[in-house]
Design brief:
This protein has 172 residues and is mainly α. 71% of the residues lie in helices and 5% in strands.
Length: 172
C-alpha cells in the first residue's frame, strides 16, 4: 500500500506541475504570436491537450513500471501486457470514462482512483484557462475585421447580434 500511496503523491504533483508549466508558457507567449485571435484560441486548446496528453503518459508509465515491471498491483479483465495497454487504461481512468475492459485490483485501485480525481481537477483547470483565453481574444475578431476594413478605406458597421452576444471589452 505504501508504494501505491507514494506513487500517487508523486504522480499528482508531477502532473500538476506539467499542466501548470504548459498553461504558464502558453499564457506568457500567446500575446507574442503574430497570428489572428482565432489561431491564438486554437493554440490554447492544442497546448492544453498536449499538457493532458503528457499527464496521461506519465500515469501510463507509472502503471507500466509498477504493475508490469515491479509486480506492485495488478489488473483484471482483459489482460494488460504492454505499455499500450497501460496507456489505454490511463486514458480511460484520467478522463473518468471507465469502459471496464481493464480494471485495477490490489494497490492499483488507489492509483486509478487518484488518477481519475487528478484528471477531473486538471481538466477543469484547463477548461477555466481556455475560457479566460476565449474571453480575452474572442472580442478581437471584430477589431481585426475593422482594422482590415479601415486599411482598405471602408467603413464597417458593427453587427447588432454580435454586439449583443459579445459586447466590446471595457476601454476598447
Amino acid at each position: 500500500m505504501l508504494p501505491a500511496l507514494t506513487a500517487s503523491v508523486v504522480l499528482v504533483v508531477s502532473t500538476i506541475l506539467v499542466l501548470y508549466e504548459t498553461l504558464r508558457l502558453t499564457s506568457e507567449h500567446l500575446a507574442e504570436l503574430p497570428v489572428p485571435p482565432r489561431a491564438r484560441i486554437l493554440v490554447v486548446v492544442l497546448m492544453t491537450f498536449i499538457g493532458h496528453t503528457i499527464a496521461v503518459w506519465i500515469y501510463a508509465g507509472a502503471y507500466w513500471l509498477l504493475v508490469l515491471q515491479l509486480g506492485i498491483g495488478a489488473f483484471a479483465g482483459a489482460p494488460v501486457t504492454s505499455f499500450e495497454d497501460c496507456l489505454y487504461f490511463s486514458v480511460v481512468a484520467y478522463t473518468s470514462l471507465g469502459f471496464g475492459d481493464h480494471f485495477p485490483t490490489s494497490h492499483t485501485r488507489l492509483l486509478a482512483g487518484v488518477e481519475a480525481l487528478n484528471g477531473l481537477l486538471l481538466i477543469g483547470w484547463s477548461a477555466s484557462f481556455t475560457y479566460l483565453a476565449i474571453e480575452r481574444y474572442w472580442p478581437l475578431h471584430g477589431k481585426a475585421r475593422a482594422h482590415r476594413a479601415a486599411r482598405a478605406g471602408q467603413g464597417v458597421e458593427p453587427e447588432p447580434a454580435r454586439e449583443r452576444l459579445f459586447p466590446p471589452a471595457p476601454g476598447a
